[in-house]
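Lecture notes, unit on protein representations.

Consider one protein chain, 161 amino acids long.
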Amino acid sequence: MIRINLITVGRLKEAYWRDAAAEYLKRLSADCRAEVIELSESRLPDAPSEKEIQKALADEAKAMEQYIGAKGAFNIAMCIEGRQLTSKALSQKLMQLSVDGISTVNFIIGSSFGIADEVKRRADMRLSMSEMTFPHQLARIMLLEQIYRAFQIGKGTRYHK
């Protein structure tokens, strides 16, 4: 059974976001081993300098290292400059990775300042949910739903209409 990790910077603060994430993780448990790995967000002043932002992104990248450097992992950086896929295309990608023997798929969601360039370069794929900007908490729930939808498409259920 394939492992799906959402490697995120920051925590879900409101109970309704945590409840939504828990629901999708419960649904996904039939199809994969899904986990959300919450990394600490770097503390920055209200108006950080570019140097402070880059240092924070580098620190967050170090915390991600143990996951993105794991053997057999396929890393997907969630970033606005990434490719956009349909739900069916995401399903096909996840099913193909499983067939190819990939044991772990890491979806990497950075902080409000994004993901370090180093992490993006090391990623096997860059994925964008939209050209629009979403709050990170909502984006996490949307991604969990799309992963769940991808597995449902792969199984041919009626969930995806």
